[in-house]
């Protein structure tokens, strides 16, 4: 089911126009497990697979291996930030980044004993907020903030009021609050005051393991809030320096 490869679908007709699968050729992807996709503002398409990151080459209708990212790495999340830098979150190797224009590239990973590093090398999602901070959803390391200068990591965990350290997705609403899906419910996190409000099955969610959340308009959020019967507001911690 998952190792199917990549289909290009004609939305108008609902028919598959082209199917790509792994193969031995130079411009073939080497893994059929397509985990993440990204279309950049310039129209480039990246495919994160269970084995590496690839960029679609329209001139040959094939895929080029992205050399700035390690091979044989499970690419679970992709993001293009405000500076057109591409971020690739992996399961096991932390985060890779590269800028196709400036050619700057590198990676971040957990460094035992270093608090200014990624808390966990398993990354489920990456999000850039309206202030250009990067938020990293980790598998067991909580929610990690990388500041807009890309120099300082700050971790937010159950010690800060989150219901779980297993984070799946992050989105930002019009109030610049973050909605964070976790293995133990949905959290609304105010990055300015550090207040956390948690929603669970007791508030009407179908399941506490809330993996996905789509915020398409302010009306969606208002409707969701009106349907919530009660919320358990966690302790507000003072801002970290």
Walkthrough of the structure:
The protein has a domain at 6-171: 7 Propeller (Methylamine Dehydrogenase, Chain H), CATH 2.130.10. The chain is mainly beta. Helix content is 4%, strand content 38%. Strands 15-16-17-18-19 form a five-stranded antiparallel beta sheet, with no helix packed on it. Strands 3-4-5-6 form a four-stranded antiparallel beta sheet, with no helix packed on it. It is globular and about 50 Å long.
Which homologous superfamily in CATH is the superfamily of the domain at 6-171? YVTN repeat-like/Quinoprotein amine dehydrogenase
What is the CATH C level class of the domain at 6-171, in words? Mainly Beta
Beta-strand residue percentage: 35-45%
Percentage of residues assigned to helices? under 10%
Oligomer: single chain
Spatial separation of the terminal alpha carbons: 47 Å
The structure class reads mainly beta
Mean pLDDT: 87
Number of strands: 19
SSE string: EEEEEEEEEEEEEEEEEEHE
Number of helices: 1
What ranges have pLDDT less than 50 throughout 5 or more consecutive residues? 214-219, 221-241
Shape: globular
Query: What is the makeup of the main sheet?
Result: 5 strands, antiparallel
Secondary structure layout plus pairing:
Elements: E1 6-10, E2 15-20, E3 34-39, E4 45-49, E5 53-57, E6 62-65, E7 75-80, E8 86-90, E9 95-98, E10 105-108, E11 123-128, E12 134-138, E13 143-146, E14 153-156, E15 167-172, E16 178-182, E17 185-189, E18 196-199, H1 218-227, E19 232-233
Antiparallel strand pairs: 1-2, 3-4, 4-5, 5-6, 7-8, 8-9, 9-10, 11-12, 12-13, 13-14, 15-16, 16-17, 17-18, 18-19
């Amino acid at each position: 089911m998952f190792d199917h490869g990549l289909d290009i679908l004609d939305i108008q007709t609902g028919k598959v126009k082209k199917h790509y699968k792994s193969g031995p050729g130079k411009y073939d992807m080497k893994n059929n497990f397509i985990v993440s996709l990204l279309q950049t503002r310039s129209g480039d398409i990246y495919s994160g697979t269970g084995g590496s990151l690839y960029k679609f080459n329209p001139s040959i209708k094939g895929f080029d291996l992205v050399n700035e990212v390690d091979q044989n790495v499970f690419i679970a999340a992709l993001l293009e930030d405000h500076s057109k830098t591409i971020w690739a979150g992996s399961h096991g190797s932390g985060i890779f980044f590269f800028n196709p224009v400036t050619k700057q590239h590198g990676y971040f990973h957990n460094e035992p004993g270093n608090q200014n590093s990624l808390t966990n090398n398993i990354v489920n999602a990456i999000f850039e907020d309206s202030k250009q901070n990067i938020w990293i959803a980790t598998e067991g390391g909580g929610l990690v903030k990388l500041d807009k200068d890309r120099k300082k990591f700050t971790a937010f965990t159950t010690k800060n009021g989150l219901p779980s350290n297993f984070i799946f997705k992050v989105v930002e609403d019009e109030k610049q609050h973050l909605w964070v899906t976790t293995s133990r419910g949905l959290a609304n996190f105010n990055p300015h005051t550090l207040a956390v409000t948690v929603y669970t099955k007791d508030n009407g969610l179908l399941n506490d393991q809330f993996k996905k959340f789509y915020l398409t308009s302010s009306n969606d959020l208002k409707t969701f809030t009106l349907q919530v019967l009660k919320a358990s507001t966690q302790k507000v911690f003072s801002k970290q320096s």
